[in-house]
Design a protein that fits this description.
Distance between the termini: 80 Å
Helix content: 40-55%
Oligomer: single chain
Shape: globular
Number of strands: 20
Structural class: alpha/beta
Length: about 650
């Protein structure tokens, strides 16, 4: 093919892709049009060019700044490597399940009968052992496994895209995610890759091109939700050019979705059982009833146990009467040792020892004065420390919704939950110290020295800082950044201002980084006693001691739904399965049926059960050798049905106590 014909072919493809993107992703199309115009008018110097390599009969990318070819003038060799390196194996996978948990489901030593975290961990280990007793091969170290099919696929980096269509045709996935850090480079791929293929034959594709954190998160979530039940193995192909940030982001998002962070056993034993036990004993807030500033004051100071709390302790002490102080329970020991009196404390931890150690440093006479916002799943022993007649104690639902039209407050940590609460409380100015989501920049400690869970970590990730260009954090904190960003997008009103005073903290979008040394705060002192009476009155108005008749009727409807669900599971158990696809079809149907219901708590339970047990089964049988092993398939199917029925009956028995 002559040069003229080649030029016309790639130009036609470019225009075809633009037409596709104009109808499929208008925002991306508009950004491509803008950069094209900037390059044409030389307002933006063109850094990258497509360069035809005669001996390869294809194109390389020439960098006009470094005067080098990105693929060393060997694009065809690179293309061949990229395609051959993408196979039906277990390499280049983003894992959505904890493989090692299924290879060694070991029980832990239970020294304290009140240690619910270990109790639930052992229950999960026992559950998994039932399945691994059938299939004894390692799934974690099985490098010879040949996958039957990949449904979801990620292109991490595109470069000029000469490999992409070949990989799509080879793998045949249905759902794609394409991310590229450089818009100019992605524009070049429009000449060489036919992106219209991504919507043929029922496929979906999500583009995230040079997006900020918030937009990337939003688009990745769309990809993850597309054909949700196929999130077993996420295969990827990476250009390995300027993509490290994507791997950090994607792994953080997967960690956020990890069902072992809060297991289906904990949903039953902590969310369902404790909510059922505590709802009729304590005042529970309905967030949907909030219609004004609940704290009756403009300025609120939120204190977390991040390393910067210790740095600013003197400033907090001097200015403590100019704010209403909301503190996470883990800060109390340090604050009270330094003469700082807290007005409101929050806690969502359901484990007795953890919460007890957080509030025990405070004398009972001081504790009684503090307004306490505790998750309704808090352990009975903690409630007893406060006293069941504590008029300053309020609970709120987490991950569940038994109150009519209540908002579900979720989060990986108490920090995220409290942050959401304060935005919902309609406060005007929120000042934050110690909400760092970063480690001590010198020592790598995760928290203030007095915090029980303080550790030195070495799994360091660099992210954008609040007052510094970059700060050190860890993967556990990194995933929380997305949750704070999502909370701001979901709950923050235009009139609300969020001032982040943490010198070494991470940056949150739509907050105001503020140097505490330049902060001029000339407000008069607050009459705390009067204000707390007003706050208490506000909380009383939106709280209730027990479920009303309509709420009880909704729970009765959920009980009927669970009974029908059990009957459907029994039907699956009675029928034989012929292959992997039939098992997947039937279990996927159960998932979408549950997700379609209005009963939120059963959805939380089943999503976590599905992501733990069902994904494990699907991983085993998504195998070129095992996908039609009828004997093994039916053994797993029978155990799955029996196990799920047991759990559903336990779930039902717990929620029945709410209406009896």
């Amino acid at each position: 093919m002559g040069r003229g014909n080649i030029h016309q072919e790639i130009l036609d493809r470019y225009l075809k892709n633009l037409g596709f993107l104009k109808s499929y992703d208008l925002d991306l199309f508009n950004r491509l049009e803008m950069i094209s115009e900037a390059l044409r008018t030389k307002k933006l110097p063109q850094r990258y060019d497509l360069s035809y390599i005669e001996e390869n009969s294809t194109f390389d990318i020439y960098d006009n700044i470094t005067k080098t070819y990105i693929l060393n003038r060997k694009p065809s060799l690179w293309q061949k490597y990229m395609v051959e390196n993408t196979s039906f194996d277990t390499n280049n996978l983003f894992a959505t399940m904890n493989f090692h948990m299924f290879d060694s489901p070991e029980r832990v030593q239970l020294d304290d009968p009140l240690d619910e975290l270990k109790i639930n961990k052992n229950l999960i280990a026992d559950d998994i052992s039932r399945y691994t007793s059938i299939f004894k091969e390692s799934i974690y170290k099985n490098n010879d496994k040949k996958i039957k099919e990949f449904d979801k696929f990620l292109f991490v980096g595109t470069l000029h895209g000469i490999h992409i269509n070949d990989i799509v045709n080879k793998i045949g996935a249905k759902n794609y995610f394409i991310c590229e850090e450089n818009l100019e480079i992605f524009r070049l791929s429009l000449f060489l890759c036919d992106y219209t293929e991504f919507i043929n034959n029922g496929r979906t594709v999500v583009f995230s091109i040079m997006d900020n954190e918030s937009n990337f998160t939003q688009k990745y979530d769309i990809f993850f939700q597309n054909s949700y039940t196929q999130n077993i193995l996420l295969k990827y192909s990476s250009t390995n050019v300027n993509v490290d940030r994507y791997f950090n982001k994607i792994n953080a998002k997967l960690l956020e979705k990890n069902p072992f962070l809060f297991t289906y056993r904990r949903v039953i034993n902590e969310i369902v059982k404790k909510t059922s036990a505590n709802f009729n004993q304590y005042k529970t807030i309905n967030f949907n009833r909030i219609n004004s500033n609940l704290l009756n004051v403009e300025n609120v100071l939120l204190l977390g146990p991040g390393p910067t709390l210790e740095k600013n302790i003197k400033w907090i002490k001097v200015n403590q009467n100019k704010f209403i102080i909301i503190a996470l329970a883990g800060t109390l020991d340090l604050l009270y040792k330094n003469g700082i009196h807290v007005d409101v404390i929050t806690s969502v931890d359901s484990h007795y020892k953890w919460v007890y150690n957080q509030i025990s440093p405070i004398k009972k006479v001081e504790l009684d004065k503090i307004i306490k916002l505790f998750s309704i799943t808090t352990h009975d022993n903690v409630f007893e420390i406060c006293g069941k007649d504590d008029k300053n104690l309020y609970t709120f639902e987490t991950l569940s919704q038994f109150q009519e039209n209540n908002l579900i407050i979720d989060g990986i940590t108490i920090g995220e939950v409290t942050f959401k609460l304060l935005l919902l409380f309609r406060i005007k100015n929120l000042y934050m110290i110690g909400m760092d989501l970063s480690v001590n920049q010198e020592t790598n400690n995760t928290h203030v020295s007095s915090y029980i869970g303080n550790k030195i970590r070495d799994d360091i990730v660099m992210v954008e800082g609040n007052l510094k260009p970059q700060v050190k954090t860890i993967n556990k904190f990194y995933r929380s950044i997305f949750n704070y960003t999502g909370a701001i997008k979901q709950f923050k009103k235009e009139y609300q201002n969020i001032y982040n005073l943490s010198q070494d903290g991470v940056f949150f979008a739509d907050t105001i980084p503020t140097d505490i040394n330049t902060l001029k705060f000339d407000y008069p002192d607050i009459d705390k006693e009067l204000l707390k009476k007003q706050i208490k009155n506000n909380f009383d108005k939106i709280s209730e001691f027990k479920l009303n008749n309509k709420e009880k009727e909704l729970i009765n409807q959920e009980i009927v739904f669970v009974d029908e669900f059990i009957l459907y599971i029994n039907k699956i158990q009675k029928n034989k399965i012929k292959d992997y696809y039939q098992l997947k079809e039937k279990t996927d149907k159960t998932f979408y049926n549950v997700m379609a219901t209005d009963h939120t708590t059963i959805k939380v339970f089943y999503e976590k059960f599905y992501a733990t047990i069902s994904r494990y089964i699907f991983f085993i049988f998504n195998d070129q050798k095992l996908y039609n092993d009828k004997k093994l398939l039916n053994e797993f199917k029978d155990l799955w049905a029996k196990h799920l029925t047991e759990l559903l009956k336990e779930y039902k028995n717990s929620i029945e106590t709410l209406v009896n």
